[in-house]
Amino acid sequence: MKTENFRSYNQRVYSETLNDGLKITLIPKKDFHSVFAALFVNAGATDQQIVDEKGETIIFPSGTAHFAEHKMFEKKNGDVSEIFSAYGAFSNAYTSQSQTVYYFQGTENIDQSIKLLLQFVQEPYYTEASVAKEQGIIGQEISMYQDMPDWVSSFGLMKNLYRKQPLGEDIAGNIDSIETINADLLYKFHRYFYQPSNLQLKIAGNIDPTGLLALLKQTQARLTRPRINFSRVNRFNAKIPVKKSAEQNMPVALPLLAAGIKGSGNLPDIDTAIDLSFSSDLILDIYFSDSSDWYLRNYNQGFLNDDFSAQADVGRNYNFITFTGHSENKELFKEIYSQLKNISYSQELEKEFQWQKKASLGELSMSLDQLENNVFTIADVFNTDVNIFRVIEKLRELTYRKAVNLFESYYNLDSFSSFCVNPVE
């Protein structure tokens, strides 16, 4: 078992990759009474096409990953979440663009909960009847989102940025796509994406690493299966131009504006991805946070409200930036675009960068008081054993010049787009 010692945090992190490829990371924290465990599946909403071991192409409809996650808790003998509750644990799951995550937190019966987590995720149970029932449930969920202005605004922007690509589709899919999902398709999705070599288990809390690793090896030995070779088909295409603008009328009091930039994607390695994620956040803080001159000027002119936000998303094969907020003046789009053009290396902003970085380091360090923040990191979507403490070290090493260079390399203003939800007249 590999051991890393992070002395500044008085923290050891243990990791091992089992023979079947399952990656394990253990973070003992004796001052905590509870345990948080998460099983990461390196597959999300954008994983819609693969080439299997026979060289044949398999296409999964939009929404398959999300559908599989919804059905995973349902087994022949009942709902797995009820078993977690009987053990005294809270359980849940979510699907993102790049991954699916199943997790629990509890203070008792930890061994039983950990074994259950490994078992129920790796042993699917799908029937045509249960799939048909779920199609109705998810269909209602999709219809509900379409009546929510915030969702319409964000989704409209993503459709502009990623035309004819999975990132431009809702994680839940659409009414037509989920109707094509059946039990056989879900088993096939599980067969490729849920194999141990595509999984990562992270556990933090009051644990004994040695004893727990023995339990994990024993449990996994009964679940392991032969590795199946396949390759993902990356459907991200930076060459497809963005749709510059679009709008929709809805019953809102104020126009809801969204703008963004599609990045170039195709990050070469995990280190670049981590650096770009932090660089994007820090650059946006310098130029667009509520302490920036730009924000104060536009706020005083009435161009933006308190709900304005700017954020970056860096994942497997993609990166993008989004700006959202209510505003009665669409000139805000031009103001955002002009400010983006101003981003460049400036010695005058070196102190501001260092201040923002120090603030981010402080927030990350304080966040470790919550067990889940020891488990979830920006590196999770890359299916590596990079832990939160190594991520923090990467931030500490990041320089202002490198941050600007990365920002300029992976974002191009030619890929700027906007979307507006207008009040119904």
Helix content: 40-55%
Q: Tell me the CATH topology of the largest domain.
A: Cytochrome Bc1 Complex, Chain A, domain 1
* Low-pLDDT ranges: none
- The span between the termini is 65 Å
- Please identify the top-level CATH class of the largest domain: Alpha Beta
CATH H-tier superfamily of the largest domain: Metalloenzyme, LuxS/M16 peptidase-like
Write down how many β-strands occur, each being a DSSP E stretch of 2 or more residues: 17
Shape: globular
What does the largest sheet look like?
A: 7 strands, mixed
How much is the radius of gyration in Å?
23 Å
Derived from helix and strand composition plus strand pairing, the structural class reads alpha+beta
Mean pLDDT: 95
CATH architectural designation of the largest domain: 2-Layer Sandwich
Query: DSSP strand (E) fraction?
Result: 15-25%
- Biggest β-sheet: strands ordered side by side in the sheet: 1-2-3-11-4-10-9
Q: List the domain count as a whole number.
A: 2
User: How many helices does DSSP assign?
Assistant: 15
GO molecular function, one term: metal ion binding
InterPro entries: Metalloenz_LuxS/M16 (IPR011249), MPP/UQCRC_Complex (IPR050361), Pept_M16_N (IPR011765), Peptidase_M16_C (IPR007863)
Pfam families: Peptidase_M16 (PF00675), Peptidase_M16_C (PF05193)
Organism: Oenococcus oeni AWRIB429
